[in-house]
Amino acid sequence: MTAHMFTIRRLAFPVALLATGFCLTAPAHAEGPPPPHPFISVTGEGRAAIAPDMAMLSLTVTRVGETAEAALAANSAAMRQVIEALKADGMAERDIQTSDFSIFPRYSQPDPTRQGGSEQQPQIIGYQVSNGVTLRVRDITKLGAILDRSVTLGVNQGGQITFTNADPAKAVEEARRKAVMDAMAKARVLAEAAGLALGPVMSISENAAQPEPMPLMRTMAMAKEVSPVPIAGGENTYAVTVDMRFDLRPKP
């Protein structure tokens, strides 16, 4: 019985030593994160300008009547005439879109010179109906003639023009290249001023291209103007910005 117990104790002793040795060889503390690598972040901007090849034109017909039904009937007849004439002149139906419609009462204004005029309540004296359309003019050389003809057909409000481009992809691509070149030039100057060398690009991101079309505001008149209305399209500018991050290294 005694020998058997002695054997168990001898087996247990090396196990305890092994356990103690494992604890002694464990690292005293974990290693911290490596120091941050130096880098530089810059923003570049590029622009490209091209002549517009399309225009968005808004036209509005406004009519008044003693009743809402009368104003609506007069407005619908005038707008129908305008749309039919535009289609007859070659305007595609897909390029004509109703963009605004409103009907509201017209009120009389109290006469403050009359006795008790300030206490008078406004009275409904009629109704006004406005119907607006937006035209996509794909041939801007016809824009002046469209404006002139629209006035003669009864358009009496609107005339806002926005020049744009059907496919600005090439202009946006040029603006992207200029934006990257601008960012790289800024990064080189900053790195040199700091006594460092510019390393490879670590990241690059682009902000959405922002077109900057030039709007032309025009007030429509009831009287016929000289035909055709002179229009100058100018240029559209497309802007792109990029955010770039570069690695920084000591100068060799």
Please give a structural write-up.
The protein is an alpha+beta fold. Among the domains are: 39-49 and 170-209 and 241-250, 2-Layer Sandwich (Translation Initiation Factor IF3), CATH 3.30.110; 54-107 and 123-164, Protein of unknown function (DUF541), domain 2 (Alpha-Beta Plaits), CATH 3.30.70. The chain has four helices and nine strands. It has helices at 2-25, 68-88, 143-152, 169-193; strands at residues 39-50, 54-65, 96-107, 124-137, 157-164, 196-206, 210-212, 215-216, 236-250. The chain has a five-stranded antiparallel β-sheet with strand order 3-4-2-5-8. Strands 1, 6, 7 and 9 form a four-stranded antiparallel β-sheet that branches. The chain is elongated, with a radius of gyration of 38 Å. The relative contact order is 0.22.
